[in-house]
Amino acid sequence: MADAAREELSALAAIFCGPDEWEVLSRSGTEGTVFRILTKAEGLMGADVLLELVFHLPVNYPSCLPGISVHSEHLTRAQSVTVKEKLLKQAENLLSEPMVHELVLWIQQNLRHVLNQPETGSGSEKCTSATGMTVDDGLWLTLLHLDHMRAKTKYIKTIEKWASDLKLTGKLMFVGVPASSKNLQSRCGLKWKEMQREND
């Protein structure tokens, strides 16, 4: 990690020194540093919104964008995704310099305006290292294990809605039922349902 990034981490620890405002979640010489900042910003109705911002600073930060996660009990999933996208867009303007404090200040001042804008959904967390390799910090694997299902169709619709709300893509697979996977991004539900009926 660069000296500028180390200095930024020290400064952030001093700035966010209140109870539970700052926490280093992990630190690695190969993976970088992950930390959490709790802050407040003015929401749509003028009330303070508590934001949990998790930053992942890659080893080559600040020459690469940080990974950002946004969590709040006062925001919907779609609003959290929109806030994350706007923070990443703002971070592109600050590339090559320590930016976390600037991003926190920016969202504190602009959260209400961000929430008033229509949702986008085209965000990307890609960065290019000095070797020209592309790293995608947005790739996640999630496994949801259900030990029984009373209404498989209802579960499928619920999972598809969650995936849509979170703007996720992937496959829905049922273990033990051969060839019954569904690509959530495609709209070939009829063919999949026919295959499911054959296997039930």
TrEMBL record:
InterPro entries: RWD_dom, RWDD3, UBQ-conjugating_enzyme/RWD. The keyword rRNA processing does not apply. One of its GO terms (biological process) is positive regulation of hypoxia-inducible factor-1alpha signaling pathway. GO terms for cellular component: cytoplasm; nucleus. Keywords: Cytoplasm, Nucleus. Residues 7-114 form the RWD domain. The keyword Nucleus applies. SMART domains: RWD (SM00591). It is found in: Cytoplasm; Nucleus. PANTHER family: RWD DOMAIN-CONTAINING PROTEIN 3. This is RWD domain-containing protein 3.
